[in-house]
Write the structure tokens for this entry.
Amino acid sequence: MEQFKSYLTKTNLSPITITGHLRHLSSYHGNLHDTEKNIINYVKENYKIGSQRQNMTVSVLKYRGFYNLPVDILRTYLQKAHQEALDLQAEKTRNIEYPSMKEMKDRLNDYYKNQDYRSFCVMYLLLTYQTRNMDLVATIVSDKNEINDTDNFIYLRGNDCIYIRNSYKTKDRYGQKRDTIRNKKFNTAIRKLEVDEVLLHGTNLTYEVKKITGGHTESTLMKLSVKENDKLNNIVKISHNRGTNVQTIHGSYNAT
């Protein structure tokens, strides 16, 4: 396994993805060098239908590819596991009671009226750019020399600011994201924060976000955005904002 770990670190995979593969394989107690059919049977018997089976199959494929073992049957099975995961997620999505976009925007405006500027900034970024939690860990700077290519920043300029994302889930695929924010309320609020980060490093981001949104996760707000903007050109924009392909949005975030 050490050779495989060394191989992964030399690829373009993110550290989070590498850790995921190693975690999956460490929990796999079957024979990774077994026949493909036996591996598929083992996965079906020991992992729940949906993302568990899909993720384990992806990791096994990585491992077997490194050792030049047969993978054609596993690749075919992965397509089935992927579709099962999409169908399961779609079913879960249909059963969720979503807040209305009006409710979320009312909450956003209330934060501004009550001068809770940090909560306002978090809600604004979630609703406008469909961010994940980690995207919200962004340092606020007014000197461009403080900006690097690894972290997230909100760079304050004259009457606007630039939201720069270098640390987000799909950075390896979509690269750095830069969005100019001209909204007057956001630019006022971000300048009134008493700290230099939107959300702080080391905090429980899920807890912090749910506290601000009224108990809703960033994933729920993403699905709400998709539901409210279900035209193709709007979905393409959401895809760009979040760094997620349109197919994934259709399968995992379709709340209609």
